[in-house]
Specification:
The chain is about 35% helix and about 15% strand. By secondary structure, it is α+β, with helices and mostly antiparallel strands. Helix 3 runs parallel beside helix 12, helix 5 packs across helix 9 and helix 8 packs across helix 10. Keywords: Membrane, Transmembrane, Transmembrane helix.
């Protein structure tokens, strides 16, 4: 059902019944009422008529007229906000149908996983942009009701100490995110049921929390090489730890730096990359993207480095440490001056600016058995023996959650690239407005929002796999062609995932009944009031003159009422004066 239909039906019923009951007087009143009601809800207009009628009938409290019109405005505003904010709607968390439940798999696993990640993370990015504020609080706009309700609120702080070695820190304090936000005097936890929709009994639920710290690091100043010539190209290497196939972390080649052209309409001046190393597996580059150097090592913490290649031209000095641009000369030698004489611009100070991030997780059962803060892989590989103590249902929930939690910063950047940067909103072609000194906080907050939304979206896709094309495989194959059905306790979770959907939104019965009762009350009172009240109102306040023939119709009715009054009480005298409604001097 739709709330505007309720208003419309009420308005039609009310005005239609009125015109049938008073066919002749309704001619005079209908035009006035219709004009006032044309841009208002029927419920609000009916309330206005009630207060106006009482004011006219009593004739002793002139101030109530202003109150009536004030209430008219307030009720209209309340009706609008209530509808768009869902006040009359009750969000329905419904169990998803067990339809093609499972994970992507098959001989083309890499192509399938890549398409799956793009699909889920794109949904997460859209939801995060629409429904998260900078403080991680989901707003109440209607588009946000089409996904799992995001109840995850995070604490953010900008004064945390740098988690890495002093040699690589020093630019600014760390930006910290704790999810969920901590309560007064106690830590809060995300719940597998409440926040992720895994509908299990209490003995199958898990609680967990994460702490993320990010800070700009001096990678270029302390751990990069000068430019050097290799095979007709110029290279610059960054060594924050070796990867599986190289002795360095990444390399910048001048030949591959984007060179904007006047015909490139959608050119982006940013390139973003990310590498992750997981606690307990820092030296295993088959699991981790790189093996961190000592300056980046933090015990029992997952480590992610984000490096930004920036060839934007800024209109003013940008002091943000990740996007820092304070030079009017291209010191990096990229020959990026494509301003075509449009003015003087500022260039990025570094070839690649780097952020370092740490993350620790803490998992608990509902009976209070918890891990200490550690990396995700440590927990999944039986950190401190905690996993061995889980019952089969809890183990299945942990396995399901672990798949969603793998959608971390590195997965998001690897899949979506520089398109996730909020800095893109400030640039046109290669040119950008100056950024705020703490703009990098916003970028990390945005990444975190996409991460949370994508986790929830991934879990919603598990029991009801969406159909989307798989790129990079032969034939017109879709996601349903590469699904492996789960087994055991994990299979039982296929029918236990809840999601909020716009297809499952119901009217709140309480508010619907309340609206009906108020409307019925107004409807009844309206018929108990004297039918000549509007005549009295227009005669005394001269708001608008009725057409002459309509005044004559009303005059006949007035004569009948006056005659009836004389017959009932002969001592009553009905006075006529020059302001009577049937005078020709209108």
């Amino acid at each position: 059902m739709n709330v505007p239909l309720v208003y419309t039906g009420f308005w039609i019923n009310h005005n239609g019944a009125w015109k049938k009951s008073w066919p002749r007087l309704g001619v005079a009143q209908g035009h006035q009422q219709q004009a006032r009601a044309s841009h208002s809800t029927a419920a609000a207009f009916a309330v206005l008529r009630l207060f106006r009628s009482i004011w006219i009938w009593l004739g002793k409290i002139p101030g109530i007229g202003l109150l009536a019109y004030a209430l008219y405005i307030v009720i209209n505003a309340a009706a609008f906000v209530s509808y768009w904010g869902g006040g009359f709607q009750k969000a329905g968390d419904v169990l998803l149908v067990d339809n093609k439940c499972g994970w992507p798999n098959g001989p083309e696993t890499e192509a399938v996983a890549s398409s799956w990640s793009r699909h889920v993370l794109a949904q997460g990015q859209e939801y995060a942009r629409n429904c998260y504020t900078p403080g991680f609080f989901p707003c109440c706009r209607k588009p946000c009701n089409v996904d799992t309700p995001t109840l995850l609120r995070s604490f953010i702080g900008d004064a945390a100490p740098c988690p890495f070695s002093e040699d690589i820190c020093g630019q600014t304090t760390a930006f910290e995110i704790e999810t969920p936000e901590f309560g007064i005097g106690a830590r809060e936890y995300m719940n597998s049921n409440e926040h992720f929709g895994i509908n299990t009994a209490k003995d199958g639920q898990l609680r967990f929390r994460s702490v993320t710290k990010c800070v700009p690091i001096l990678a270029e100043e302390k751990h990069s090489t000068p430019w050097f010539e290799v095979a007709w190209d110029t290279h610059k290497e960054y060594n924050l730890g070796p990867t599986e196939s190289t002795s360095f972390t990444w390399v910048v080649r001048k030949s591959l730096v984007p060179k904007p052209q006047p015909t490139m309409k959608n050119f982006s001046p940013y390139e973003l990359r990310a590498l992750a190393s997981y606690a307990g597996f820092h030296d295993n580059t088959s699991i981790s993207d790189f093996s961190p150097i000592d300056d980046l090592m933090v015990p029992h913490a997952d480590i992610t480095v984000l490096y930004l290649l920036n060839i934007a031209l800024y209109s003013n000095v940008t002091e943000d440490p990740w996007f820092q641009a304070t030079n009017k000369v291209d010191r990096n030698g990229f020959r990026r001056d494509f301003s075509w004489g449009l003015g003087s611009y500022y260039y990025a100070d570094r070839v690649a600016s780097t952020l370092g991030c740490t993350r620790q997780w803490e998992f608990c059962t509902m009976d209070g058995s918890c891990t200490s803060p550690m990396g995700l892989m440590e927990i999944l590989h039986n950190g401190e023996g905690w996993r061995e103590r889980l019952n089969p249902k809890q183990a299945a929930v942990l396995e399901l959650l672990s798949k969603a939690l793998e959608l971390d910063f590195s997965a998001i950047v690897r899949t979506l690239g520089a398109g996730i940067l909020s800095a893109n909103d400030q640039q046109v072609y290669q040119f950008s407005a100056a950024l705020r000194p703490t703009h990098w906080h916003r970028e990390i907050a945005s990444l975190h929002s996409i991460e949370l939304a994508s986790m929830q979206r991934f879990l919603a896709n598990f029991p009801s796999v969406p159909v989307f094309p798989i790129d990079g495989v032969e034939g017109n194959k879709t996601s349903h062609d590469f699904i492996t059905e789960p087994e055991g306790e994990l299979r039982s979770l296929c029918g236990s995932i809840r999601i909020r959907s716009e297809n499952h939104t119901n009217l709140n019965v309480f508010w619907l009944l309340l609206l009906f009762m108020v409307g019925l009350f107004i409807f009844g009172i309206r018929y108990l009031l004297l039918p000549l009240q509007d005549v009295w109102f227009h005669r005394n306040f001269r708001i608008r003159d009725y057409p002459h023939e309509q005044w004559e119709e009303i005059a006949l009715l007035y004569d009948r009422e006056a005659g009836a009054l004389r017959r009932k009480n002969p001592t009553v005298v009905v006075y006529d004066d020059c302001d009577s409604p049937w005078t020709d001097n209108i």
